[in-house]
Amino acid sequence: MQGWTTSRSRLQKIALHLSPALLFCCALVPNLHAQWIGRQTGCSKPAIVANPNRPTVANPADTTQYGVLELEYGWDRTWPGGGLHQYDFAGLLKFGMLCDIELRWTTTSLISQTDASGTQNGFGDNWFGPQIRFYRQTTHVPALAFSYAAKFLSASQQKGLGSGRVDHAFTFLASKDLLGTHFDGNATYFLIGRTNSSGFDHNFQLNISFSRTLRGPLGITGELYGNTRLNPATPGFVSTLWALTVQVSPRLVLDGGIDAGLTSGAPHKRVFVGVTYSITDLYAAVKRARRSGKTPPATSSTDPK
């Protein structure tokens, strides 16, 4: 409880410092009322278009389209260093619940680690939380959003696949299109549960990524990101990521690339391939079903059968 109280106090101090700056920025933005989250109009779009978070560590500030259920899934092979090799299958399921609010579920369905002592296989941990876009992109101002995610324990601590402690992530996101190039920037504050004592360690992650079309459906993505020091056993690091993407259709995007550490504390190398697919517009599907009579109106228990 003492560790949590200390962490909460830190968060309150951060919020107190950030709130005046945010209010000041809002006051300077013209026509803010037209872009603010409270204006929930024009949500439905004529066509579904994927909003990939893959393959970068940074996520876009723009949320998944209203009513759309979207899946991202991929395979990673990582060489963290110290003779350890790891591969995993991980995914992200997103749902555009409102115009500017999406629900997010990140899961690792399989993780395998091999070192000198052998190989351990099992489930990874799961992360749940919302992302809220509070300002939509304008000519001079990027899209702005905030997200929160909490880790729910499903990975085996005994096998060394998880810490066995709940973690939290608070992220500020910004996205902007400039001269045919899309930029995403994130700043994340992590609260990481300590494994051998109560309370949390904490650090920050900063990243900036870009993506642009090379030719036709082929695109390129690059990113620079890094973490500050978490504790004496986990130093800070800087890494870079490069990937190619293929937009097979507006709803389907493929990706593949490499992530390489730039400093001694970073994972040495990671290669990956993955896919993003917008499955369906759930709200539109429900409306179509009702119009076609497949979803009858609710009846009371006294209605004749």
3D architecture notes:
The chain is mainly beta. It has a single domain, classed as Porin (Beta Barrel). It is built from two helices and 13 strands; from the N terminus they run H-E-E-E-E-E-E-E-E-E-E-E-E-E-H. A twelve-stranded antiparallel β-barrel has the order 1-2-3-5-6-7-8-9-10-11-12-13. It is globular and about 60 Å long.
Keywords:
single chain, 305 residues, mainly beta, Porin, 13 strands, disordered N terminus, disordered C terminus
Précis, in short:
This protein is mainly beta and 305 residues long. It has helices at residues 2-28, 282-291; strands at 68-81, 84-98, 101-115, 118-122, 126-135, 143-152, 168-178, 181-193, 200-215, 218-227, 237-249, 252-261, 269-281.
Q: Average pLDDT across residues?
A: 86
Structural class: mainly beta
Residue stretches low in confidence (pLDDT < 50, at least 5 long) are: 1-8, 11-34, 299-305
Strand order across the largest sheet: 1-2-3-5-6-7-8-9-10-11-12-13
Q: What characteristic shape results from the CA principal axes? A: globular
Order of helices and strands: HEEEEEEEEEEEEEH
The CATH C-level class name: Mainly Beta
CATH topology: Porin
Proportion of strand residues:
over 45%
Largest sheet: 12 strands, antiparallel, barrel
SS element count, helices: 2
Level-2 CATH architecture:
Beta Barrel
The CATH H-level homologous superfamily:
monomeric porin ompg
